[in-house]
Write a structure and sequence with these properties.
Layout: H1 2-22, E1 26-30, E2 36-40, H2 41-81
Antiparallel strand pairs: 1-2
Length: about 90
């Protein structure tokens, strides 16, 4: 199973690398108020992907922090009640 995962990762890397090599043309990204930015297409796509990933992680971060805080509170409550063993449902 490990080897299959490595083969798939390698295949994905090769496909992304080929995509990057083929898309080196310059593109212009136009912003509001007359701003514009020129960069290779693959770099513009990389910036857009990383920006989207950062926004997605930021959107989920509040929920993760809230859940960790609630887990900590529940664990402290269990320790105070003297429960030594939990059963899975």
């Amino acid at each position: 199973m490990k080897y299959l995962a490595w083969v798939l990762k390698l295949a994905l890397f090769v496909v992304v690398l080929m995509f990057a090599v083929r898309n080196t043309d310059m593109v212009t990204v136009h912003f509001y108020f007359g701003g514009e930015w020129q960069a290779p297409l693959i770099f513009a796509l990389l910036v857009a992907f990383c920006g989207g990933a950062a926004i997605g992680l930021g959107a989920g971060l509040g929920q993760i922090v809230r859940q960790r805080r609630e887990i900590g509170i529940l664990q402290r409550e269990l320790l105070q009640t003297g429960v030594t063993q939990l059963t899975r449902i």
